[in-house]
Known about the structure:
Blueprint: H1 2-30, H2 35-51, H3 55-71, H4 75-92, H5 95-111, H6 115-131, H7 135-179, H8 185-280, H9 283-314, H10 318-324, E1 327-333, E2 341-347, E3 351-359, H11 363-380, H12 387-404, E4 414-422, E5 427-433, E6 437-441, E7 444-448, E8 466-469, E9 475-479, E10 487-488, E11 493-494, H13 496-507, H14 512-527, E12 536-542
Antiparallel strand pairs: 1-12, 2-3, 3-4, 4-5, 5-8, 6-7, 6-9, 9-12, 10-11
Helix pairs in contact: 1-2, 1-8, 2-3, 3-4, 4-5, 5-6, 5-7, 6-7, 7-8, 9-11, 11-12
Amino acid sequence: MNFLRxxxxxxxxxxxxxxxxxxEQLESKLTTLSSSEKLPxxxxxxxxxxxxxxxxxxxxxxxxxxxxxxxxxxxxPAVSYYKKSLKNFEILKDNKACVVVLxxxxxxxxxxxxxxxxxxxxxxxLVIANRSNLTKEAEVVSKNIEAVNKNRKNIEKTxxxxxxxxxxxxxxxxxxLVNDNEKSHExxxxxxxxxxxxxxxxxxxxAEIERKKTExxxxxxxxxxxxxxxxxxxxxxxxxxxxxxxxxxAISGFALLLALLAIVIYRxxxxxxxxxxxxxxxxxxxxxQKDEIEKKSKVIFESIEYAKNIQQALLPSDxxxxxxxxxxxxxxxxxxxxxxxxxxLSVNKDSVIFAVADCTxxxxxxxxVSMMGHAYLNExxxxxxxxxxxxxxxxxxILSELNRKNVSTIKYGMDIAILSINKSTxxxxxxxxxxxLQIVRNTERLAFESDVRGVGTERDGPFENHSFQLSQNxxxxxxxxxxxDQRGGVSNKKFLSKRLYQLFESVAVLPMSxxxxxxxxxxxxxxxxxxxxxxMLVVGIKM
Length: 543
C-alpha cells in the first residue's frame, strides 16, 4: 500500500514539472507571434492558470485577451474576457486592478457610441477608486465620465435643436400662407403633404439605421459562432494532447520509479562501502588528506581569482566606453568568480563595433570559452567588419578548434549579438546568434530577432545581416539570458524576456544611471532568497 502511494506521489511530482515546462514554453512563444496568432495561445495559458487555481495570472491573462479582442473590434467577446478578469480581481480584493478593468470596459463601450453603458461601468470604477483612495485612477476615470457626459449632452442637444428647428420652420411657412391672400387651400394642403413626406423621410432614415444595427448584430452573432467553433477545435486538440501527456506521464513515472529504486540501492551500496573504508582509515591519514585538500583548494581559488583579473582586463574599460557613448550603462553580474558572459568593443575611423556574448555554461568553463571568443573576435575584426560575416568566421573558428581537440560543441558554444554603428551617419548593422537586439524610440520598442542557432553549431547557411537607421535619443539594449531566466517572484517562475522588454520600455525616459539601478533592484527583488542561476549581462546605450 505504501509502495502504491509512493508511485502516485512520483507521478504527481513529475506531472507538475512537465505542466510548468509547458506553461513556460507558451509564455516564451508569445514574444514571436503576431497579434492574430497570440489569441489561441493566450487562451491556453489562461486555461492552465485556471486549472492550477492561479487566479492572479489567470486574471491578467484574461485582461490581455480582452485587450487583443478590443483591438480586433470584437466588442462583446472583449467585454466577456474583461468580466472574467474582473471576477478574479474581485476575489483577490485587488481594487486597483478592478478599477483598471472597469475603465477599459467603459472605454470600449464609449468607442462604439454606447455612452449609457459606458457611463455605468465608469461610475462603478469611480466608486471603487474613491473608496480605496486611488487618487490617480480616480482622476483618469473622472475625465472619462466627463467625456461621456459631454457626448450624451451633445446628442440630446442635437435632437432637441433638430425638433425645434423643424417646428419653427413649419410654423413660419403656415403663417406666411395664412397671411398671403394669394395662397390657396391647395398650397396649404401641398405644405401638409411635404411635411408628411419629410416625416416619412425621417422614418425611412430611422429604419435604415435600425437595419444597419440589425446587420451589425447578425455579423456579431456570426463572429461569436465562428469563435465558438474555433474554441471547440482548440478544446478537442487540447483534450487529445492531455491524453497523450497522461500516457507519457504514466510511462515516465514508471521509468522514474525504477530509476529511483536503482539510485536507492546504489546509494546504499556506496554508503556501506564508504563506511567500511572510513573504519579502516587512521585519523592521521584523514588529517593529512584534509591539509592537502585545503592547500589544493587555496591554489585553485588563487588561480581562479587571477583568471578573474585577466578576464576583467579583457573587457572594455569605463574610459573606453565613455569616449564612445556618453550615455550608457553596463549591468554585469557573474554567477561565480569568473563569468561566461562578456562584452567586446572595437573602433575604427568610420564605425564602432560592439558585441554582447553568453558562452555556454558559467564559471571556469564559460570563462575559458569567453577568452577564446575575445581572441577570435580581435583576429576576425582585421579581416572583415560586417556583423554577419564576423559571426560566420567566428562560428567556423570555434567549430574548427573544438572539433580539432575532439571537444563537444554542444557543451561549449556561445550566443552573441554584434552590431556596427557608423559614427557619422548613425547607420546601424546587426547580426545575432540566438541573441536579439532591442531598440526603444519614443517609448516604442523595436525588436530585431536573431538567428535561432548559436555560434559553435553546424549551419545550413550564413547568418543574416540587419540594417537600421538610428535617430537622436534612440536607446539600444543588448542582453544575455541570465536576467530573463532568473527564477523568483511569488510563484518562483522565470522572469522571462517579456517582462524584461516591458521594463526597457518603462525606464526608457530615465537617465541611463537610473535605468541601471532600477534593473538591479528589480532582479534582486524578483530573485529574493533564491540563488543566482546564471551570469547576467545587460548593456544600454543612448544615441
